[in-house]
Amino acid sequence: MIKILTATTALAAFAFAPAIAGEWGDKKDKMETASTTVEIEIEGVEEDQGTVYVALQTKDEFAKTDGKYAQTVEADDDEVEVTFEGVEPGEYAVAVFQDTDGDGTLTLDGQMPSEPYAFSGEVEGAPTFEAAAVMVEGEEAEIEIDLEQ
Fold it and tell me: Which residues belong to the signal peptide in this entry (predicted)?
């Protein structure tokens, strides 16, 4: 099991904001050859404040609005969890934001988000796949994300 703790600092540029703010819906399609269950635990959620958007993205999908693994979950507690089953082992980045105003997008104040957001890995400044990348392998992987307020 992989356990990765992350806390994201403020982002300097937001080329990635449209990607995590897209209209995802629940995408639970599975690759037939995939074998890893990925559990993503999100802490620092503003309880009872809208919806949490979560994307598990490959390098090719990073910073795009569509991807194979994306889910939404209601922010009904200060910690929420999403599970992706049948994930093909490999390198992924996790992007998360909480839509506290219910408009379906990551709201910005100028070029900085005014809603909680986070990435996996060691993202500082403008997010890159390399900085956010985590390895998903084995039967089960657990990734912990702490939302920035």
Answer: 1-21
